[in-house]
Amino acid sequence: MFRNPLTIGIDIGHHSIKAVVLRQKKPELELVAFSEVELPAPVLNKQNSVNSPALLSAVRKLKKSLPFGARQAVMALPDSAIISKVIQLDSHLTEEESVFAVEQAISASSPFPVEELRLDFFPMVGEMFGETFAEPSQTHPVQVYAARKETIDSRVEVLRQARFEPEVMELQTHALVWLQQYQAERQGSSDGNDSEWGIVDIGQTATAIGIRGPAGTVYRREVSFGCETLSEAEHAWGGSSADKAEQFTKQLADQLKRQLQLYSTTYPRSALQGIWLSGGGQGLVIEEMLARMLSVSVRKMQPLSGFRRSAKLDLALDGKSFGQFAVAAGLAIRGCHE
């Protein structure tokens, strides 16, 4: 058995599957391997269900490129696959009573019968980030997440068939926040306040936004804007690659402005200082231009750069961003904290 077990973050995307393998080497995490397998056809549909045979084939191919003995896996669900609700629970309820109260609350707002859902809930006292409330009260806010059993179970079953051991199912934007927080601890920022930065992951078809809020909450949004926007609009935009980058940056800024304004309204006392850019589309963005349009600092993140690693991996990472591995890296970090 491994003294420090390997943890794999697996990100199932529309056009590829990505994996990042980490190992705990206190006080750091060590990057052991990373890999990406392109999909000949998408394995996800608009209802967030997976094509299990096609996904299994890709996962088995991915497994061959990972270290022998790497089994423990963490996966993510798209935010669009999740029902999220904050409820107030009596602080003196038993576990059984709490489960019943959560089921009643979700059944009132879910389009699906509660019997078809898997539920997870936790007090909003910042377990994710080590925060606590000052004084106990008669009631406390509880964050509830629900997802269809089929959505979760199909993914879990595919990994088990490929001889992985799925241990955690996390939200995609939560994985991004785990990565951002780890990078902040390792790198810090010039203003020394990286805790009030968000992360924006630009994918092929969508852009995910994750910002750590107060009391362990995560402000999360997903907008239908990604790299495909550039491909579809190239003929209309015309011009040089610089012109196209400028147009892409302007459209991204328009999408983000709405979300950041909503964040400011929701958390008026937690002003956002800046955003990290990740995802395969980060290279399409002009940082200075986006920073000027959003009135916050903007930096591009290298998701795999904040880990201890071998000279061989150093060489593989040299001069490249590998922004598309952000979610997988965040998932692996999440698994190492179990």
UniProtKB/TrEMBL annotation:
InterPro entries xrefs: ATPase_NBD, FtsA/MreB, PilM
Highest taxon of the lineage: Bacteria
Coiled-coil positions: none
One Pfam family per UniProt: PilM_2
Protein name per its UniProtKB record: Type IV pilus assembly protein PilM
Species of the source: Photobacterium rosenbergii
